[in-house]
Specification:
Elements: E1 2-5, E2 13-14, H1 15-21, E3 30-32, H2 40-44, H3 51-63, H4 69-79, E4 86-88, E5 93-97, H5 107-121, E6 129-134, H6 138-147, E7 153-160, H7 166-173, E8 179-184, H8 188-199, H9 202-205, E9 209-212, H10 218-221, H11 226-235, E10 242-247, H12 252-262, E11 269-274, H13 279-286, H14 310-316, H15 321-327, E12 328-332, H16 335-349, H17 355-370, E13 375-380, H18 388-395, H19 403-409, E14 416-418, H20 421-429
Parallel strand pairs: 5-13, 6-7, 6-9, 7-8, 8-14, 10-11, 10-13, 11-12
Antiparallel strand pairs: 1-2, 1-3, 4-5
Helix pairs in contact: 3-4, 4-5, 5-6, 6-7, 12-14, 16-17, 16-18
The protein binds pyridoxal-5'-phosphate (PLP) and the ligand N[C@@H](CCOP(=O)(O)O)C(=O)O.
Keywords: Amino-acid biosynthesis, Lyase, Pyridoxal phosphate, Threonine biosynthesis
Enzyme class: lyase
Protein name: Threonine synthase
Length: about 425
């Protein structure tokens, strides 16, 4: 598959080049040249397919011919070595749990898939690659875990100091080996801007091969479309009009859901559920896209003021505002509303939601008010114990720690503080 840059000022790239470069030379995000819908029979027969078979069929066109089919099957099987259960809360609302992977957030699938693609492309140790990642909480840990020990790959994670949860910080600062963490005195947007600047800095790119493991990178972003298919497999016999409420920050996940829909997955509607960082909620009302500096919230991984992937969403809808609005609603919630929702989910359904999932739940409720005959699935994008302080404080109950969290909680943090782009450059060059 060839990919073009959404800035339209760079040559087309193969999948391999798009993965290795991360961002196109004109600063644009890569987008697949074609999207061929899967045959109807694929969806009709979905009950008889395993998750790996579904994922293989869904991603094949985007990675071939550079990744041979047998290799792709192995990559997909190794990537998906955990569960993706849907739990029904009531007649109209279900939860899709995306936190059963090694770092207990939905990023694990994309990170593991991308690490294996890069590992395959670098199997002959052609050239060392430095993976730069900006994180508002979960990407960093997932990438650290997914890329740990991958030959020929060095990972540098930038995160906003004091703005990620204790457990998220442990997950991204304690692994050592080929993983380094840089603590930035600023916001996630500052981290993301520095990463993008580095890709375009000749004095760096002449000396090293840099790529991104954020959803900018097609190999990190596209595998997220699997989730929507896995939920459909579990729900389509019980519910007809399925709506997804996606807690959104950088908008990679919801955009991947829209790609699943482009492949033919019968999804009725999307809800982008936001915290106070609500550039898209405002856009759908005013038609004005006005990114703002991010605001710190209790759903910290969604504290993104300028979502990278919104441009891909615009591309899917050919920049047609009315078409987009027909398929996407968006709502924004304060921290107080999020806390009330967490309590409600616990008291009504005996289910412990994390703050991000709770924002998704609120999005479902808002959509269902106007569309009561649909079934809304909110994505539980991270395990509640990743946000232990908030969760225990809200539901007033101690939470047992899963093994994945116990493994990191007592480890020593190791990070390097940087104050700006020059420090990042020095770090990378030295
Ligand atoms: C727990 C959690 N929920 C939601 C999001 C938002 O996802 P996206 O950036 O794909 O919109 C993130 C981070 O990306 C996250 O870590
Ligand atoms: N919420 C993310 C922010 C980066 O998103 P990505 O999907 O582009 O990597 C995080 O947890 O770091």
């Amino acid at each position: 598959m060839n990919y073009y840059s959404l800035n339209h000022q760079a040559p087309k790239s193969s999948f391999k080049d798009a993965v290795i470069k991360g961002l196109a030379p004109d600063k644009g995000l890569y987008f697949p040249e074609t999207i061929a819908p899967l045959p109807k029979s694929f969806f009709e027969n979905i009950d008889n397919l395993s998750y790996s078979e579904i994922a293989f069929e869904a991603i094949k066109q985007f990675v071939s011919p550079e990744i041979p089919e047998e290799t792709l099957k192995t990559i997909v099987e190794e990537t998906l070595s955990f569960e993706f259960p849907v739990i029904q809360l009531n007649e109209n609302i279900s939860v899709l749990e995306l936190f059963h992977g090694p770092t207990m957030a939905f990023k694990d699938v994309g990170a593991r898939f991308m690490a294996r693609c890069l590992g395959y492309f670098n199997k002959n140790n052609e050239k060392e690659v430095t993976v730069l990642v900006a994180t508002s909480g979960d990407t960093g840990g997932a990438v650290a875990n997914g890329f740990l020990g991958v030959k020929g790959v060095n990972v540098v994670i930038l995160y906003p100091s004091g703005k990620v949860s204790d457990i998220q910080e442990k997950q991204l600062t304690t692994l050592g080996q080929n993983i380094k963490a840089l603590e930035v005195n600023g916001t996630f947007d500052d981290c993301q801007a520095m990463v993008k600047k580095a890709f375009l800095d000749d004095s760096l790119t002449n000396k090293m091969q840099l790529t991104s493991a954020n959803s900018i990178n097609v190999a990190r972003w596209l595998p997220q479309l699997f989730y929507f298919m896995f939920a459909y497999k579990q729900l389509h016999n019980k519910h007809k009009d399925i709506v997804f409420s996606v807690p959104s920050g950088n908008f990679g996940n919801i955009c991947a859901g829209m790609m699943a829909q482009q492949l033919g997955l019968p999804i009725k509607h999307f809800v982008a559920s936001n915290n106070a960082n609500n550039v898209v909620t405002r856009y759908l009302v005013s038609k004005l896209y006005e990114p703002k500096p991010s605001i710190q919230t209790i759903s910290n991984a969604m504290d993104v003021g300028a979502p990278s992937n919104f441009i891909r969403i615009q591309e899917i809808y050919k920049n047609n505002f009315e078409n987009l609005k027909q398929n996407l609603s968006s709502f924004s919630y304060s921290d107080d509303e999020t806390r009330v929702a967490m309590k409600e989910i616990y008291n009504k359904y005996n289910y412990v939601a994390d703050p991000h999932g709770a924002v998704g739940y609120l999005g479902c409720k808002a959509y269902l008010k106007e569309n009561p005959n649909t079934h809304c699935v909110f994505l539980e994008t991270a395990h509640p114990t990743k946000f232990l302080d908030v969760v225990e404080d809200v539901i007033q109950e101690k939470q047992p720690l899963p093994e994945q969290i116990k493994e990191v909680i007592d480890k020593e943090k190791e990070s390097f503080v940087i104050t700006g782009y020059d420090d990042l450059k020095d770090f990378l060059l030295n």
